[in-house]
Amino acid sequence: MEPVTPGTPGHRVVIVGGGFAGLYAARGLAGEPVDVALVDRRNHHLFQPLLYQVATGALSADEIAPPLRSVLRRQRNAAVLLADVEDIDLAGQAVTARGHDGHEHRLPYDTLVLAAGADTNYFGHDEWSDDAPGLKSIEDAVEIRRRILGAFEAAELEPDPVVRSALLTFVVVGAGPTGVELAGQIAELARDVLPQDFERIDTTSARVLLVDAAPHVLGGYHPRLSERAARDLRALGVEVRLEAPVAAVDAEAVTIAEERVPTRTVVWAAGIRASPLAALVAGKAGIEPDRGGRLPVGPDLTLPGHPEVFVLGDMASVDGVPGVAPAAMQMGRHAAAMISARVTASPLPDPFRYRDRGTLATIGRHRAVGQIRGLRLKGLPAWVLWLAVHLTYLVGFQNRLVVFVRWSFSYLTRGRSARVIPGRVSRG
Amino acid sequence: MEPVTPGTPGHRVVIVGGGFAGLYAARGLAGEPVDVALVDRRNHHLFQPLLYQVATGALSADEIAPPLRSVLRRQRNAAVLLADVEDIDLAGQAVTARGHDGHEHRLPYDTLVLAAGADTNYFGHDEWSDDAPGLKSIEDAVEIRRRILGAFEAAELEPDPVVRSALLTFVVVGAGPTGVELAGQIAELARDVLPQDFERIDTTSARVLLVDAAPHVLGGYHPRLSERAARDLRALGVEVRLEAPVAAVDAEAVTIAEERVPTRTVVWAAGIRASPLAALVAGKAGIEPDRGGRLPVGPDLTLPGHPEVFVLGDMASVDGVPGVAPAAMQMGRHAAAMISARVTASPLPDPFRYRDRGTLATIGRHRAVGQIRGLRLKGLPAWVLWLAVHLTYLVGFQNRLVVFVRWSFSYLTRGRSARVIPGRVSRG
After folding, report:
1. Which of A276, B138, B339, B421 has the least CB density, counted as fewest CB within 10 Å?
2. Can you say whether the dihedral through the CA atoms of A230, A236, A239, A244 is positive or negative?
3. How do A118-120 and A272-274 pair as beta strands?
C-alpha cells in the first residue's frame, strides 16, 4: 500500500452517509484543506438511540433528526448532497448517485468515506419485513407508532374478545438495547400512560413480549446487569422469553419456538445488516463481507488494498468494536484525523482503538442498567446518567431543550404527547 | 319545533369532529349529566392556524396536534372513538361509523353535534389537487414541507438553469390569512434561513408568488391593513398578484391569468368546502347547502327541523360569522350551553352571537397586521400580539412551552429546525 499523496486545497473527500460516523468525519475535517461532499438519501442526521421514543409517542420526529445542512452550515469546506448512491467506481475513484433532482451525478473523490450504516436483518426471512418492521429510520418509527397506538384504538372498538386480545399483544423480537428499551416503553404506555385514556379496554391487560433466541437480554452486558434488566422488565409487566427463536411471522401471529402467539404488532429489533453498498464494494475490491454484510477493515479503518477508502460505523467490521453510536463517532473522528494528517503531510495518528466509555440501556422510569469503566450501575443512578448522556449527545441545543421539556412533562405527568397517528408512509 | 325532552344522565351526545368546534363542545359538557362520544377519523386535535409552520419547518407535527384522548382524559363523561362517519340517520337518530377496528359501529344519539370541518375547495377543479395540495391536515403539511424543501434540494443539484428556476419558484394560491402567512414564511426561508445552507444555488433568488382573483390580500380586513400586508409581503420579496385568477395548474406550471409560470411547488389556500357530511345531511333534511357546501342553521345553531342536531364551525353557515377558529370555539361553547340547559331543564342561553375579538395575520419577523375591537394594529405590536395569542390558544401546556422554545430559537438564530423531509405520506 503506497501512501496517499499529500493533498492541496481541492483534495476531494466524498462521505457517503450522514449518521454518526459520516457526520463526525465531516465535522472532523472542518478547517482542513479539503473539499467535503456529504451524500445522504435523507436530508437529516438521525439520533438513532432515541428512535424508539418517536415510535412510542414520547418525542416528535423532528426533535431527533436535525437537518444535515443546519448541522454543517458553518463549515465552509463541506457541502451536502441529497442523493442515493447507485454505484462506486473504486478504480476510477468516483461515486455515482441519483440526486433529488432525478439526475445521475458523478462525484470524483480523492478520499472516499463509506458510512452508509445498516438496515434491519431478517436473517433470510425478508418476507417478514411487512409484518415485523424494523426500527432504523424516521419512517420506520412513524409506522411503528401508527401500529402500536392504532392497535389500542382498534381494541377499544373491537367487539370480539379474541381479536381484542390479539390487538393488545405486542411482540418485540430481539433483546438488545433497542428491543429492551422499546419493550419497556410499550409496557409503560399500557400501564401508566394510556389507562385513563380509554373507556372500554383495560390497557393494563396488554401483553408485551420480548423475545430472543439468546439466553440473556442485553447480550454484551455483564451477566448481573442482564439479570437486573430482565427483572426490571418483568416488574414492568414485560414477558421476557429467552432461548425462544422466532419460527414464523405473519399478519396475525408470531410463532415463538412452538407457540403461536396471536398479535397485530410485531417489531423486529433482532439484528442489522450493513447497507447493500458494502456488498457492492466487496465485489469490486474482491473481499468477503462478514455475516452481517460488513466490510473487514484494517486498524487504520481503510479498505484492504484501498488506502483512499475508509469504511466506518455499521458498515465496518473491526475486531472488538461493537455496533454502537460512540464507536461510530470515534471512527468518524479517526478517519478525519487520518485524512487531515495525509493532506497536510503530518504524522499519522495511531491505529484506531475503540475507547469503551461504557454502555447504558434504560428500561423505564427510574430503571436502567449500565457499565462505565468497570463500574456496574443500575436503578435510579443509571437512569439519571442515561438521560444526561442522551441529552448531551443529541445534536443541536434547541433539540436538547425541546427533548428536555418533553421528558420533564412525561416524567411529571406520566403522559406522552407526541402521539399523532399519521397516514401510512411509504418507506423506502 | 318542539323542545327536546329534558334528559337524564344517559342523554347521549354524539359529536362528529375533534376540531375547535367539536372539542369546545365536548369540553363545555364536562360535568353535565350527558354521555359524550367524540368521533373523529384522526386521533388528534389540530391547531390549524399554525399548520403552515409545520409545512415550512418551523414546528414539528406533534407540537400542534395533541391527542384527543389526552385533551379529554380527565373528562369522565366523554369518550373518544377513532372512526370514519359513513352515514347519519336523522330519523332514527344514529350515526354509522367505520371504526379503526375495521367494523361498522352504530352510535345512537339524543343530541348530535356536527363539527366535521372542511376540505380544500378547488371550485370545480379537483383535478388540480395533486399538483396544488391544500393545507388542511398534518399529512397535507408534511407533504407541502416535502415539496418546498425538496425543491431547494433538487435545485441545488439541477444542472439546467431553466428547470432550476422552475424549482425555485413557489406559488401560493389564495391571499387569505393562510396564504399570506405561508407565502411570508416561504420567503423568509429563502431569504433568511436557507442561504447559508446551500452551496450552488442562491436561495435568495427564489420567487414566491401570492396569487388571488380578488383585488386585495386579506379580503375581510380594513383596506389600510390589506395594503400594509401587501406592502410587508413585497418587502419580504413576495410577488403579490391580485385580480389574477388561476386558469390552470399542472405538474410543471401554473397559469395565472394569461401567463404560464413554470413551477414545481403550488399550494392551494384559495378556499374551503364543508365536509361531505354536510351534503349527506342536507339531502336527508331536505335543505340546500350554500355555495361552500355549508348547512344554513338557525340562531340556535341547530339544523332546521332538527332541534336535536347542532351544526358548528366550518360546516355551518351563519349570517355574519366568519370561518375562523374563534368562531368555531364560540359555537362549540354555545352548543354545549344549549345542551346543558336542555338536559337540566334550565333557561336556554340567548341565541348565538359571534363576538369578534379581532383578527390577526402574521407576515414574517416583526411583521403582522390585525384589528382588535376597532383598533388597527400593524408591525411589531401586531406581531407580538400574534405570538401571544397563538401560544395562549395552543392546546396543552407542554406544547406551548415547546413551541415557545422553537420560536425563540427561530427568532434568535433565523433557523428552522423541524425540517425532516419524510417519505411520501398517503393522504386520505
Report:
1. A276
2. negative
3. antiparallel
pTM metric for this prediction: 0.93
CB A70 to CB B424 under 8 A? no
Check A32, A63, A181, A308 and give the catalytic one.
A181
Å between B421 CA and nearest CA of chain A: 6
> How many Å separate Cα B167 from the centre of its chain?
27
Q: Which of A96, A201, A419 to mutate to test the interface with B (most CBs of B within 10 A)?
A: A419
For B423, the closest of A63, A196, A427 (CB atoms) is A427
pLDDT value at B279 more than 70: yes
Report the sign of the C-alpha dihedral through residues A407, A409, A415, A416, in that order: negative
The grid coordinates of residue A196 equal 385513563
Output the pLDDT for position A38: 98
* Cα pseudo-dihedral A254, A257, A261, A264, rounded to 10: -20
- Alpha carbon distance B387, B117 (integer Å): 25
Predicted confidence at residue A374, as pLDDT, reads 84
A42, A73, A409 member nearest B398 (Cβ): A409
- Whether A427 shows a pLDDT value over 70: the answer reads no
Residue B101 pLDDT:
87
Q: Which of B62, B68, B411 is the mutation pick for testing A, counting most A CBs within 10 A?
A: B62
Average pLDDT score, chain A: 94
The three three-digit cell numbers of residue A289, written as one number? 463481507
Phi-psi category of residue B10: left, alpha or beta, with phi > 0 → left and psi -120 to 50 → alpha: left
Q: CB–CB of A166/A152 below 8 Å?
A: no
Determine the Cα angle at B183 with ends B182 and B184, to 5°: 90
Q: Do B83 and A198 touch (CB under 8 A)?
A: no
> Is residue A181 annotated as part of the catalytic site, yes or no?
yes
- Reduced to 3 states (helix: H, G, I; strand: E, B; else coil), residue A270 is coil
CB contact under 8 A, B154 and A79: no
Q: What is the overall mean pLDDT for chain B? A: 94
Q: Which residues of A touch B155 (CB under 8 A)?
A: 101
Cβ-nearest to A398 among B196, B417, B421: B417
CB contact under 8 A, A150 and B100: yes
Cβ contacts of A176 within 8 Å, gap of 6 or more? A218, A219, A269, A270
**What pLDDT does residue A424 have?**
61
In this structure, the dihedral spanned by the alpha carbons of residues A68, A74, A79 and A84, taken in order and rounded to 10 degrees, is 0
